[in-house]
Design goal:
The protein is an alpha+beta fold. About 40% of the residues lie in helices and about 15% in strands. Helix 2 packs across helix 4 (about 45-55) and helix 7 (about 155-165) packs across helix 8.
Length: about 240
């Protein structure tokens, strides 16, 4: 089976499974011929399966780690995986969060982003329980004008994106402190770039989990106009 057909097979399986799948499950369902071509063994771990697929078809799929599980995702923004499950008529079943490739913190950040963009809404029951619904007629915000962001001299969007990609090692949610340190830009220049990209909806900022960071890493996060600390970032334009 040619690798092109294997890529189509994997994408088809992901699309039928909400856009993602645990790597070990993918190992079991792609078939013996695809495993042979990719060099995957029937008892390979999720990490090994993901590495084989990524090596054979770089850039075709996204990888993400959650606890000790490796997930394979279709190339898209994390928000699209969640938005695709929201319905205007039926409240979102929060119980499925545990089966998603994101932690609860990441999942709630995605939901908050969708609500901020007007792509989701929250209704409350008489007992105060939140119910999440999709919003019809609202499309994902896409900014194709990445180069319209103005930066002087060596501080360009292209260099920022290069640093983002280098730090994006299957985590999807890239730590702002890692990008800041890789670039080594003056603090006001870096924060200005973050703010400009955010305002143009090119990136989306998230609070992240400060408990997993050192004091220095927390200090290298981004503080917005409302004095909220933002620890991670995702890129809207892929």
């Amino acid at each position: 089976m040619p690798e092109k057909n294997i890529a189509d097979l994997i994408q088809s399986l992901l699309e039928k499974n909400k856009g993602f799948m645990i790597a070990t499950k993918m190992r079991d369902v792609i078939g013996a011929e695809a495993r042979r071509v990719l060099g995957i063994k029937t008892k390979d771990t999720g990490k090994n399966v993901a590495r084989r697929i990524e090596k054979a078809m770089p850039g075709k799929f996204m990888l993400h780690m959650k606890s000790n599980r490796t997930y394979l995702l279709i190339p898209c923004e994390p928000s699209e995986l969640v938005a695709g499950l929201l319905s205007p008529q039926k409240a979102f079943d929060m119980r499925i969060i545990n089966g998603f490739p994101f932690t609860k913190v990441e999942f709630y950040e995605i939901l908050n982003g969708l609500i901020d963009e007007g792509r989701a809404k929250v209704n409350f029951t008489e007992k105060g329980a939140p119910k999440i619904f999709g919003v019809t007629g609202v499309k994902a915000v896409r900014s194709e004008a990445v180069k319209s962001v103005v930066a002087d001299g060596e501080y360009t969007v292209e260099k920022f994106r290069e640093a983002f990609d280098e730090c994006d090692k299957g985590r999807i949610f890239v730590r702002i402190c890692d990008i800041r340190r890789k670039l080594g830009w003056p603090r006001d220049v870096f924060d200005g770039m973050i703010r400009d990209l955010r305002d143009k909806r090119i990136i989306q900022l998230h609070t992240g989990d400060a408990s997993l960071m050192t004091e220095d890493e927390v200090a290298d996060c981004y503080i917005d106009e409302n004095n909220f600390r933002m620890g991670t970032v995702t890129w809207h334009v892929r």
